[in-house]
């Protein structure tokens, strides 16, 4: 999983002491089991796992195979580093390795949203937060997937060297200087399972008429069901109550319009059935964690 590893190398492994208020920077090394050079970062100094005990910051990159048990000597080295006072920062699915070492027990943590449920099931003592970019829990930090690892690394630079250094580094990397950890991960819109018969036709009709008010009674009539039958079937087959499903579809439609059109927020609110721009902003921010304008900036095609 080279992407997150390369992010850590770029942030911590390149001398940017000119940005630091103290005039120093990180001394960066890759740790392998026996200290042998890493094929994927051949020009970086290499140490053995034993050297982790002397580190101030240990960055655990993504794990490529979540079903493979991490090496026992790596887990032991991480525990020793933690007990010696090192901060442990897990990038993306590196959280699985840190959790296997027991260092996330009783802590809040995150990982890529696609794997958050697996992390929570496998390690029930971890308070998994699937909808944030990163979690700073003092000595142990975790990030969500992919570029959220960059957000966490810049956050660490901010902690260690101040806002000026983090902002200067972000400008050099041509990335946003700061995205707060509590910002929601951008998760793919949910897809309905294949629903057949009258209910499937009713849901398809509703998706085509999101610009107008739709009542549960109307949806039930189109599905040839009672409102009670509609609610029961939608919870069982779609995973949401009728009103929650409609709200979800309106948000998905707003996302599509923000990505693909130049329509104003007011126009989008009308076209997805939210009524006013204020209503759209409120519900959109609650679901995605960002404003419609911020979402458009990030995902405009």
From TrEMBL:
Residues 200-298 form the HTH araC/xylS-type domain. GO terms for molecular function: DNA-binding transcription factor activity; sequence-specific DNA binding. SMART domains: HTH_ARAC. It comes from the Bacteria. The keyword Transcription applies. InterPro entries: Class_I_gatase-like, DJ-1/PfpI, Homeodomain-like_sf, HTH_AraC, HTH_AraC-typ_CS, INH-QAR. CDD domains: GATase1_AraC_1 (cd03137). Keywords: DNA-binding, Transcription, Transcription regulation. Pfam families: DJ-1_PfpI, HTH_18. Gene3D superfamilies: 3.40.50.880, Homeodomain-like. PANTHER family: ARAC-FAMILY TRANSCRIPTIONAL REGULATOR, HTH-TYPE TRANSCRIPTIONAL REGULATOR RV1931C. This is Transcriptional regulator GlxA family with amidase domain. The lineage of its organism: Bacteria, Bacillati, Actinomycetota, Actinomycetes, Jiangellales.
């Amino acid at each position: 999983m080279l992407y997150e590893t390369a992010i850590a190398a770029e942030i911590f492994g390149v001398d940017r002491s000119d940005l630091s208020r103290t005039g120093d920077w990180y001394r960066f090394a890759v740790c392998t089991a026996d200290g042998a050079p890493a094929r994927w970062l051949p020009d970086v100094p290499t140490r053995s796992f034993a050297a982790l005990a002397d580190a101030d910051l240990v960055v655990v990159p993504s794990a490529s195979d979540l079903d493979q048990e991490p090496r026992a000597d790596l887990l032991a080295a991480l525990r020793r580093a933690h007990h010696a006072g090192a901060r442990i920062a897990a990038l993306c699915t590196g959280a699985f390795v840190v959790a296997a070492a027991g260092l996330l027990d009783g802590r809040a943590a995150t990982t890529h949203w696609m794997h958050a449920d697996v992390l929570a099931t496998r390690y029930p003592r971890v308070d998994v937060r699937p909808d944030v970019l990163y979690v700073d829990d003092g000595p142990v930090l975790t990030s969500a997937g992919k570029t959220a690892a960059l957000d966490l690394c810049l956050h660490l630079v901010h902690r260690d060297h101040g806002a000026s250094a983090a902002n200067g580094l972000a400008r050099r990397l041509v990335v946003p200087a700061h995205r707060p950890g509590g910002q929601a991960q951008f998760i793919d819109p949910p897809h309905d399972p294949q629903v057949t018969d009258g209910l499937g036709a009713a849901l398809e009709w509703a998706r085509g008429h999101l610009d107008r008010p739709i009542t549960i009674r109307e949806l039930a009539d189109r599905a040839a069901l009672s409102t009670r039958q509609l609610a029961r079937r939608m919870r069982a087959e779609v995973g949401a109550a009728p009103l929650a499903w409609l709200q979800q579809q309106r948000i998905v439609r707003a996302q599509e319009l923000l990505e693909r059109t130049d329509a104003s927020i007011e126009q989008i609110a009308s076209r997805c059935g939210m009524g006013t721009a204020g209503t759209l902003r409120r519900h959109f921010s609650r679901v995605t964690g960002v404003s419609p304008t911020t979402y458009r900036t990030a995902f405009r095609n």
